[in-house]
Amino acid sequence: MAYAARTDLVRRFGEQEVASLEDPDNTGSGDARVSSEALDDASGELDSYVAVRYAIPLPSVPEPLVRACCDVARFRLYKDRPTEEVKYRYERSIKWLEQLAAGKVLLTFAPALTPQQVED
After folding, report:
1. Interatomic CA distance for residues 73 and 24, integer angstroms
2. What's the confidence (pLDDT) of residue 107?
3. Which of 1, 111, 104 lies closest to 53, judged by CA?
4. Residue 107: is it exposed, middle or buried by C-beta count within 10 angstroms (0-12/13-18/19+)?
5. 9-40: pLDDT as tens digits
6. Pick from 21, 34, 64, 71: most CB atoms within 10 A?
7. Cα–Cα distance measured from residue 103 to residue 85, given in angstroms and rounded to the nearest whole number
């Protein structure tokens, strides 16, 4: 299950940036599957942190996970040429995920999870 969709990337970073990342050679043949794959890869990476504290798949996706997924996917889309901002946002998201796995920050759900759902 992906924690974010292409529309989330566009909402956060703009259509122009997302489209340019989907078409790195500027050939005009951009493919939305590129961003979908990056979002799936990012979601898998996020699962490795989330699963330490929560049963996955989650019943809903809290906004902080959407943000983190977008930051990780964006970093992946930049491949070997991320800007300082992209790298900073990625590193900040990874630190937050590490805190999540360590139990120093928590996810909130609407409606709240039952104790059974947290433990499963």
Report:
1. 15
2. 92
3. 104
4. middle
5. 999 999 999 999 998 666 666 677 899 999 99
6. 71
7. 27
Tokens for 76, please give them.
């992946």
d(CA 4, CA 43): 8
Q: Is 94 exposed, middle or buried (0-12, 13-18, 19+ CB in 10 A)?
A: middle
Global pTM value: 0.87
| Residue recorded with tokens 């992906």 | 2
Q: Report pLDDT digits (tens) over 39-84.
A: 999 999 999 999 999 999 998 999 999 999 999 999 999 988 999 9
The size of the chain, in residues, is 120
Rounded CA-CA distance 112/48 in Å is 22
Asked if 63 and 71 count as a contact pair (C-beta separation under 8 A), the reply is no
Could you tell me which of 30, 25, 1, 37 has the C-alpha nearest to residue 15?
30
pLDDT at 110: 76
Q: Is the peptide bond before 115 cis (omega within 30 degrees of 0)?
A: no
The two tokens of residue 91 are 């590193």
